[in-house]
Amino acid sequence: MKNFAILFMIVIISFCYAEAIAQPWIEINRPASATFQDIKQSFNDYWKDKQIERGKGYKQFKRWEWFWESRLMPNGEFPSPTITMDEYRKYYDMYAAKQSPRTLSTDDWEFAGPTTSPGQYYGLGRLNCVAFHPTDKQIFWVGSPSGGLWKTTDGGVTWSTNTDDLPVLGVSDIAIDPTNANIMYIATGDGDGGGGLLLPYGDTKSIGVLKSTNGGSTWSRTGLSSTVNELKLIRRLLIHPNNPQQVLAASSDGIWMTSNGGKIWEKKQSGRFIDLEFHPTEPSIIYASTYAILYSADTVSHIYRSTNTGSSWTSVATLDGVRRIDMAVSKQSPNVVQALCSDLYGGLSGIWTSTDNGTSFTETFIGTESTNLLNTSYNASGIGGQGFYDLTLAINPFNVNEIWVGGINTWKSNDGAKTWNLKTMWVGDSINNPNQVPVVHADKHFMIYHPLDSGVLFQCNDGGLYKTTNSGENWIDLSNGLGISQIYRIGVAQTDDLVISGLQDNGNKAREGDEWSELPFGGDGMNCIVDYSDHRYFYWSTQNGDIYSADLQKSSVKVISHNIPDGQQENASPAGAWITPYVIHPTNPKVLYAGYKRIFKTTDRGDSWTAISPVLTSDVLQYIATSATDENTLYAATPDSLFSTTDGGQNWESKSIGIPSALVSNIIVDPLNSKRLYITISGYLEGKKVFVSADGGDNWYNYSGSLPNVPVNCIV
Q: Whole-angstrom Cα distance, residue 158 to residue 163?
């Protein structure tokens, strides 16, 4: 892996961003009935002719858009929450029950990674929470939005999991019985919403609260259960410190409580709740906070208080213009509770403080364009942020004046939130990080002090788990060994044991043999290709069309999409799809094709490009397929249109798919016949899943057979 280490070292990553002078794209007072197209149009109108800015929710929205665009109903509406289960039952009744029983074997599969990362800007995957053993400081657990629950018994040196067979792999919070660590609960799903609290929720949905009585070896459902089709989320679990039979859950449909160890749950308060905190010394007092969904008419969030151990609740603060609230309490000063509030655009609204056990709250720190702790900037300047997606607050249990705020970066106050110091930055270059504070992966989801290890602060972010033992001067990455990566695509070599993968939030990684290495450039890793004739040449990409190449013989890395002549600014790629398509020619590995609004071709592995098509679409292309038997035949598609050339790009035809309301999700060409073309259909068109053309797309016949009415993503 020496070559990959060289590639990692020779590229100096620098990032630049421009602050918007207009409001972020998130509109308020949008009705809850807004359609997918309504939301997409609002987003596109805002970003038209603007430079893409980090930390304004752009990536979170594009992930949400990418997921839902191919999963709509034929009329363009969002599907029913129960559609997947409905179709499963229909399919089972019609076909599966008539077949002989089958068993699923995992004997031929083993986990291959990635499991290692150098830390800092790079990471392995997102974590939502961490919880600690009540008596052994070396034992703790972490929860991932789509990678399950993981446990360490040696302080984070090694990790293991027993949740791979759960119906969902999302974990939003963990509660450990303080009297018996074998009894534990997990809130399933991704409580941060993935897409930024949009409806319908992205990422992993909840199936309720699960319970283990053997330290996490096995899990069972509790009385608080749901199906993924109900789109519920649970972000916070609290277990009573003196009565472990009582557990509370903050969920998207209210505050739930059980008094008998999870058998029966009662809803104690309606609303969209995201945080819960016990009073440090008087557990009959509990605090709760709500959030306002993007595109809902509600622009108000609330802080609630209970004085009877959660049996009833009273709103003690109504905060207009606040999207989300995260709370923290102080063991040193039990009467203090603080609330970190993001505004409707993801920036800092302010910090509200109560000094009378939550009876009343006063705004003690106001978020402005020059005090926006949730922005990307090193000096807290600018509008907006990602407070609807990553928001966390912590108070040192032994020093009420030491307060930590996590958004994209990490900030610390030593004077009770009056002044702030930057303690981690998401990037390390001298322009964006002039004071060279420690670089730790962006987007903070949870911070907590270790209850048995004084002064040790843990942080869960989009890269994994980090801790500091010296008040944020240095940070230690504890993520190695976790299998939590969210992978978009992989590319596999034909001449070597090399695999390249593109990860959400964590760039691209390469695996050769059993070792993983980092590829340069961060962001969301997308399509990856290894030259089938020589694995020393390979390609990877990031969101919206940046494509990179590596030549291991020369130890060189290039941003080859910057060489595409599309009238763009210098040293920039054309604007492409979220997952921009590019393919390597099946018989000439020096030839690649890339699709934006036009098709571009290179014959020298990306050093130079030529447009071989006019502008084919007002949107952007999402799929390209080449022929192995005719080098002049090429196909390109958007979800609702198909184009072809049989003369190397001199002339192009628009082909009618002939399937009303169909959304193309993939195209391939028969390797032995350039005219034989397959397309897969996403969405929910009954009996219309795979179509085949024998004449290059002029005519189609249905090849769907008995496939169920669920979205089809690809075909080989």
A: 16
The separation between the first and the last C-alpha atoms of the chain, rounded to the nearest angstrom, is: 31
Residues 205 and 185 sit within 8 Å (Cβ to Cβ): no
Place of tokens 């720190």: 365
Residues 6+ apart with CB under 8 A from 637: 621, 622, 623, 624, 643, 664, 667, 679
Amino acid, single-letter form, for residue 451: P
> Which neighbouring-strand residues pair with 693?
677
Q: Is the N-terminal amide bond of 114 cis, ω within 30° of 0?
A: yes
Q: Assess contact for 124 and 463: CB atoms under 8 A.
A: yes
Assigned token pair, 184: 């534990």
Single pTM value for the model? 0.90
For residue 633, which amino acid is it?
A: T
As given in the structure block, the two tokens for residue 445 are 């989801």
How far is Cα 63 from Cα 201, in angstroms, rounded to an integer? 11
Strand partners, 447: 459
Q: Residue 254: what residue type?
A: G
- CA pair distance 349, 407, nearest whole angstrom: 13
Give CA–CA dist 427/569, Å, rounded. Answer: 24
For every residue of 500-538, which 3-state class applies, written as one string?
A: EEEECCCCEEEEECCEEEECCCCCCEEEEEECCCCCCEE
Coil, strand, or helix at residue 42?
Answer: helix
Instruction: State both tokens at 446.
Output: 């949870």
Closest CA to 79 of 90, 64, 68: 68
**Are the C-beta atoms of 570 and 516 separated by less than 8 Å?**
no
CA separation for the pair 549, 163 (Å, rounded): 37
Give me the mean pLDDT over the 620-648 stretch.
94
Beta carbons within 8 Å of 608's beta carbon, 6+ residues apart: 563, 602
Phi, psi of 669 (to 5 degrees): -110, 135
Q: Tell which residue, 347, 345, 346, 289, has the closest CA to residue 318.
A: 289
Query: Residues 582-618: pLDDT tens digits?
Result: 999 999 999 999 999 999 999 999 999 999 999 999 8
pLDDT 10s digits, 649-676: 999 999 988 888 888 999 999 999 999 9
- pLDDT value of residue 14: 34
Q: How does residue 28 score in pLDDT terms, banded at 50, 70 and 90?
A: very low
Q: How do beta strands 610-611 and 171-176 pair?
A: unpaired
Half-sphere exposure in the Cβ direction for 49 (13 Å, CA): 2
- How many residues are listed for the chain in this entry? 716
Give the C-alpha separation, 705 to 423, whole Å.
58
Sheet holding 690-693, edge to edge: 663-669, 677-682, 690-693, 701-702
DSSP state of 474: S
3-class DSSP assignment, residue 463: coil
Q: Is the pLDDT of residue 17 over 60?
A: no
Residue 457 has a pLDDT of 98
DSSP code at position 453 = S
The pLDDT tens digits for 521-561 are: 888 999 999 999 999 999 999 999 999 999 988 888 999 99
Query: Under 8 Å CB-to-CB from 429, ≥6 apart: which residues?
Result: 12, 13, 14, 15
Q: What pLDDT is recorded for position 23?
A: 44
Say whether 30 sits in a helix, a strand or coil. coil
Q: In the predicted model, what is the mean pLDDT of residues 236-240?
A: 97
Cα distances from 523 to residues 69, 122, 206, 683, in angstroms, run 21, 9, 27, 28
